[in-house]
Amino acid sequence: EAIRKEKAAEAKRREEKKNQLNEIKIVKFQPLEDIAVYIEHPQTSDKICLKDIARAKKDIEIGGLVFTMPYGEGNYNLRSEKYIRELCKRYHLAFRFEMVSDVINKEGRKGCYEAFMDKKIDQKYGLKFRQFILEEADLMLIKSNDTVLAWDCDKKPQIEGISSAIINVQLEKNLRSDLSQDKINYVAGLDVAFYIDKQGIASGYHLEDYNSIEKEGNEKYKARLFRAGIDALKKHKNCVAGEILGQKVITKQIIRIYFDA
Description:
Blueprint: H1 2-22, H2 35-38, H3 47-62, E1 66-71, H4 81-90, E2 94-99, H5 112-125, H6 129-144, E3 147-149, E4 158-159, E5 166-170, H7 173-181, E6 190-196, E7 202-210, H8 216-220, H9 222-233, E8 239-240, E9 242-244, E10 247-260
Parallel strand pairs: 1-2, 3-10, 5-10
Antiparallel strand pairs: 4-8, 6-7, 6-10, 9-10
């Protein structure tokens, strides 16, 4: 009888645990007030926002207005940064990247520094000045014939037969045989970069990165793998140039290549 009761109790505990796991809890957050409005009356407990507004006021007092651009964790790239900086200098603005985050922080809201600076810039230059700077910088980039990373285009370049930045290449027989003799069962991947001009012509193939994965034997085959990767890419000759603001630009394309042994 005691065993039966214990089994029944255990079954009940399992059922309760199962119900807890299956229970869906919906937590609703109130939508945040627009940051441009919020900086007019930040909460007195908002340490982050109040500190950022004070920092912005101090920067204006000692150095002037700052044109900010957001960035998050990891790598970031601003395609027209060079020309944005030139325009900022022309209009007597400093330029700075400011960290942004969508993580809710109990200490307060981020973004008040940028919002405060944007407000002051709007008051001095007009409401559409920021957009003017960004668009003008893009136009300067287009006219310069600078090379743009493919993923920074409004319309990315297209390579016939390649729909993503990763391809698999079948190794030729002799290379497979040599790898087998050296008892190399895993072949490292590599990144091949090249350029696509405004006419859609690809050129300038070169090794961007070689991932040896700490396999010393793979280093021996780097050149042959690179050649195999280039040969595979050159089969895809038909390309369409990338575009910014509807204008064709020269782009740098990077393709990750994995090999099927």
